[in-house]
Design a protein that fits this description.
The complex is a heterodimer of chains A (385) and B (388). With 385 residues, chain A is of the alpha+beta class. Helix content of chain A is 55%, strand content 17%. With 388 residues, chain B is α+β, with helices and mostly antiparallel strands.
């Protein structure tokens, strides 16, 4: 009888309820997408492995390290593999955001360190055999329609000149947290070209990717590596891959925080809308509540009637909003995939959405229910809404 | 005959809680909308005021940032012989050959390191940037390991007070002054002597060169002279144009994100307004009938309810604007992707933004209030009177 009353009440003002629910759907949807945007920011850190360290110049990332450090790092006990990775920063076609992607000059053993990138053995062999060869991620290849054998021209910004690479392989992601939007080519090739054109810039590494056998020794090994080069001309800073990636996010912390704050603002906005609806509804029905009381129902019953109506409405809107989050996220990804290569709705996001809907429902119903439960029967019956 | 304005306002006042909630929701939307526009305006102002119109900046061809650029010493010396380069009081050409590197220092409060620009410059560099003045301490002495820091750096990073030392490039650098860059991008930089920096960083190349033109209109002539000299494989840009390019991506990102958010949020707020106005119409059906019976026309009723919705939205918009104007006290420090370094900028409330926000709330009120007002106007007198 209670639930029946609640549902009947919701659809008495069909237009108002529909509008409120529509507003809820939009808000819960927007909240979910914003949370997902924040998550996407951390995608690089999420795919980081505990068994990889990154060694860079202690002064800052823009300073290179001598390439011979590779052998000295490899000699350290506990280190399994070391590979150079150089940010190339070339321009494809033009400078627009849509044509931007990360390019790295890497050692040939780099992919041994990244088992989450799956390359067919014959493509890997073809890449290793071609000096100008490049390995590109599935996402990147699909975006530009590249196939094996295509020639990709890049205009060097950090390393001047016109560079050409041949796609020799396309690597696939292990699962949907893996970002496959990079472009890899031989560090040897870059190095040889630099030896001819800018000898002072040759034999240098941007960062070293250091594979370690035991992830729990990461902190200790980082110190050993940095100790190896202390007081040299190029001191190093070694940290786990995750810390390295989070360092990037931290540099843009202000933006991430702003998005987070705004995602909660939308909840406050929708709270105002729902609270307004419930306040109006309760005011109009004061006479009914008085009647219920006159029939012998207690104030708690009347109060819970209003809160239940409010919660039922927000949960309905919330459920539709959550359901719509998935197709919207997929559409969003198709639209701005260049910015956020990994854009998945996390289970925690769905939980947050549901919690937000519930809290808004309870909070919005509370104030009017208090008023209705306190109404005196005589006043209520006399009241004309 | 028009429905009196006082009647409209008193209707809003009669249902205070509802008015407050509806206007509050709209106010928050306007707040977000305004905050984003202010942020973008602040970013643009910071970068525009970073450059002077009569300065030209030279970078290696095809490099987009000063970090990527490199200029040989002989190229840099050639610049002093170019036509239209202004000369200082001592007759020396006003050319500032500079070196630029990024160092990582911990941000205040998070102790996570962030990239800060370190710029080595000769004496001319200071003369070429008249908007920069020392607010505390003094400028660095040429030929010494002294540095000065911008206000944004002093505020946002640890260990950057006067008398403190920063360690980079295997040396200790003493901070002797804090400068105010007039809200420009220089506020986020550290400055020192160029020759000392190049020695410490073991560089033989400059990063960029800044040149004062005799007259702002001489730019094209200088650009032609650089283009015609095969020894100078350099790009020339006006300084403000260069800094504007540096932040284009960040600015685009902020604008697109902000507009999309505001549009989505405004749907919620307009629905709120529609609900309120529908309820107003339903509650006052009898009143509407009476008004019509008194001789007010349908158009007047429509206008009265529309004005009520607009008043509601404007009240919300005003609240949002007041709230947003409080943001002017804050500064945001974030990474500029293109230059890969930290940039501090504020929220800037311009008259144009006030106008846009007002227009935005006006439109929200109109859209949200239109259908309910139409319903009010279409009521038949007899039905309306009977409903009461």
């Amino acid at each position: 009888m209670f639930l029946k009353l609640v549902f009947k009440n919701i659809f008495r003002h069909r237009l108002r309820s529909l509008l409120t629910i529509a507003g809820l759907i939009v808000a819960i949807l927007a909240f979910g997408i914003l949370q997902t945007v924040v998550d996407a920011w951390f995608a690089g850190a999420d795919m980081a492995s505990a068994q990889r360290l990154i060694t860079r110049n202690a002064t800052s990332l823009v300073f290179a390290l001598p390439a011979y450090y590779r052998e000295r790092i490899r000699a350290i006990d506990g280190v399994t593999k070391v590979a150079i990775s150089n940010w190339f920063g070339g321009i494809y076609k033009d400078q627009s955001v849509g044509n931007f992607f990360a390019q790295f000059a890497i050692d040939d053993n780099y992919f041994d360190l990244y088992p989450e990138f799956r390359v067919k053995p014959e493509q890997m062999a073809a890449w290793k055999a071609d000096r100008r060869g490049a390995l590109v991620g599935r996402l990147l290849a699909d975006q530009f329609g590249w196939k094996v054998g295509d020639v990709i021209p890049l205009k060097g910004a950090i390393y001047p000149g016109d560079w050409e690479f041949v796609v020799r392989g396309i690597y696939e992601p292990k699962d949907d947290t893996t970002v496959t939007r990079q472009f890899y080519f031989h560090w040897e090739y870059l190095n040889e070209a630099l030896k001819l054109k800018f000898p002072r810039r040759a034999e240098q590494a941007g960062v070293f990717i250091v594979g370690i056998a035991d992830g729990s020794r990461a902190a200790e090994l980082s110190q050993v590596i940095d100790g190896e080069f202390r007081n040299s001309l190029a001191e190093t800073l070694t940290e786990t891959e995750k810390a390295f990636q989070l360092g990037f996010v931290a540099q843009m912390e202000a933006i991430v925080t702003a998005i987070r704050v705004v995602s909660f603002v939308v909840i406050v906005i929708i709270f105002a809308v729902v609270a307004n609806t419930m306040a109006m509804t309760a005011r109009e029905r004061l006479a009914e509540y008085a009647t219920l009381k006159a029939l012998g129902f207690g104030p708690a019953f009347v109060a819970s009637l209003i809160v239940a109506e409010s919660v039922a409405m927000t949960l309905l809107g919330g459920a539709i909003g959550i359901a719509l989050t998935f197709p919207t996220a997929a559409a969003f990804k198709a639209l701005v995939g260049t910015l956020f290569p990994v854009f998945n709705v996390a289970p925690s996001t769905v939980a947050l959405q549901a919690a937000a809907a519930l809290i808004v429902g309870i909070a919005a119903g509370l104030l009017p229910s208090l008023r209705a439960s306190r109404v005196k029967i005589v006043d209520g019956l006399r009241y004309i809404g | 005959m028009k429905v009196p304005f006082a009647y409209i306002v008193r209707n809003l006042w009669a249902r205070r809680l509802t008015t407050l909630l509806t206007a509050g929701g709209m106010g928050l939307v306007v707040f977000v909308f305004t905050a984003v526009l202010m942020l973008d305006a602040g970013l643009k102002r910071t970068l525009v005021s970073t450059g002077s119109w009569d300065n030209a900046i030279l970078l290696r061809q095809a490099s987009q940032t000063e970090i990527q650029s490199a200029i040989y010493r002989d190229q840099a010396d050639l610049l002093e012989t170019l036509p239209h380069v202004a000369r200082g009081a001592d007759g020396e050409p006003l050319v500032s050959k500079e070196t630029l590197v990024l160092i990582a220092i911990p941000k205040k409060g998070s102790d996570k390191p962030a990239n800060v620009v370190v710029r080595g410059m000769p004496r001319e560099g200071i003369a070429l940037r008249p908007q920069v003045r020392i607010v505390d301490g003094r400028f660095f002495r040429a030929g010494s390991s002294e540095i000065v820091v911008g206000r944004g750096v002093a505020r946002g990073f640890d260990g950057t007070g006067i008398g403190e030392r920063l360690r980079f490039a295997g040396r200790e650098w003493t901070i002797v002054g804090v400068f105010d860059g007039g809200k420009s991008g220089f506020d986020s930089e550290v400055w020192g002597d160029v020759e000392q920096m190049m020695q410490a960083f073991r560089r033989t190349l400059y990063s960029s060169a800044l040149v004062r033109l005799e007259q702002a209109s001489d730019f094209q002539a200088l650009a032609d002279a650089v283009g015609n000299d095969p020894r100078l494989a350099l790009d020339v840009k006006r300084e403000p144009a260069f800094y504007e390019e540096q932040s284009r991506q960040l600015s685009q990102f902020i604008t697109i994100l902000g507009i999309v958010l505001s549009l989505i949020f405004s749907i919620g707020a307009m629905i709120g307004a529609a609900i309120t106005m529908y309820a107003a119409v339903a509650n006052r059906t009898g009143e509407i009938g009476t008004l019509r019976a008194l001789g007010f026309r349908r158009a007047s009723i429509l206008a009265a309810f529309l004005v009520e919705a607009i008043m509601l939205a404007l009240a919300g918009g005003a609240a949002g604007l007041v709230l947003a104007s409080g943001l002017q006290a804050f500064t945001i420090t974030t990474m500029n992707w293109q230059s890969f370094s930290q940039l501090a900028f504020g929220f800037d409330l311009t008259p144009r933004i006030v106008a846009s926000a007002t227009l935005f709330s006006l439109v929200m009120g109109l859209v949200g209030g239109f259908l309910p007002s139409l319903r009010a106007a279409r009521l038949e007198i007899v039905d309306a009177l009977r409903a009461a």
